Amino acid sequence: MSAVNDTKLNSAVFLLTGIPGKEDVHLWISIPFCLMYVILIVGNSVILFIVKTDPSLHEPMYIFLSMLAVTDLGLSISSMPTTLGIFLFNSREISLNACFAQLFFIHSLQCIESSVLLLMAFDRFIVIHNPLRYASILTLPRIAKMGLVCVLRRVALILPNPFLLQRFQYFRANVLSHSYCLHQEVMKMACSDIRVNSIYGLSVTIFTVWLDSLLIFLSYVMILKTVLSITSHAKCLRALNTCVSHLCAVLLSYTPMIALSVMHRFGEGSSPLLQILLAYIYVLVPPLMNPIVYSMKSKHLRARIIRVFIK
């Protein structure tokens, strides 16, 4: 009995995976990964700096953009140590507690980002549907309360996951298929009945990401209905143009997020390489592209960024 226990929880570790079959070129692969991390950290930090220091950008749209930038930074930084550790130093081992902490932050920030995108959809709906009351509806105190509620609610939903995983026993070496820990994958490594974790994890996904995506879709249905009622073709196009950046952010975030979640839960025969690719897209591409998309579409923000770098 003691021999069995020795191979389980007390000495268990997880082994992370980079890109299978490409271990000999991991150091070269680390170069684009390092560049992407540097660019996304600089890009999101610049957005935060400009919005904070420029009073003319203290508007709901830019405040929500700042929330998105903070979330993107957190999501990327949560996966960065283990990802770069594998590619730079071939360091695959991660302890149970470190793995549980990492998956808590990744999933919490994923849910918070989903909430921020929903708030941004609400912002776009108000500015198009009721522009005269826009400033009175989305006041700074109200935005702060909305952001705080979203963070606390989503963290409370994800918090039970690591504690539920700690109840299980694991064998000494558990090979994960990604360079960071995800709840859907870690729970499959347990030597126990995982039905409670599976049901709870799926319920959280449905009532956060899936529900948010449905509400965002309904917001855009109402936006489209409002826009189509505008008689002026130029005003109609101008109204739709204000939503392009947010639509890009939604597609960049939800497409890999939902695809990866579905593949982990239901895609038993799916390609492992496709799962790995989606996992990297999930944590790197949205934080990398969101500052670029918003700075390209917002003339005001782009002008402030250019001014900062020219000085």
From TrEMBL:
GO terms for molecular function: G protein-coupled receptor activity; olfactory receptor activity. CDD domains: 7tmA_OR51-like (cd15222). Keywords: Cell membrane, G-protein coupled receptor, Membrane, Olfaction, Receptor, Sensory transduction, Transducer, Transmembrane, Transmembrane helix. Residues 43-294 form the G-protein coupled receptors family 1 profile domain. GO terms for cellular component: plasma membrane. It is a multi-pass membrane protein. The keyword Cell membrane applies. GO terms for biological process: cellular response to lipid. The keyword GTP-binding does not apply. Pfam families: 7tm_4. InterPro entries: GPCR_Rhodpsn (IPR000276), GPCR_Rhodpsn_7TM (IPR017452), Olfact_rcpt (IPR000725), OR51/52/56-like (IPR050402). The chain crosses the membrane at residues 25-51, 63-88, 100-122, 199-223, 244-267, 273-294. It is found in: Cell membrane; Membrane. Belongs to the G-protein coupled receptor 1 family. PANTHER family: OLFACTORY RECEPTOR 56B1-RELATED, OLFACTORY RECEPTOR FAMILY 51 SUBFAMILY AF MEMBER 1. This is Olfactory receptor. It comes from Gopherus agassizii. The lineage of its organism: Eukaryota, Metazoa, Chordata, Craniata, Vertebrata.
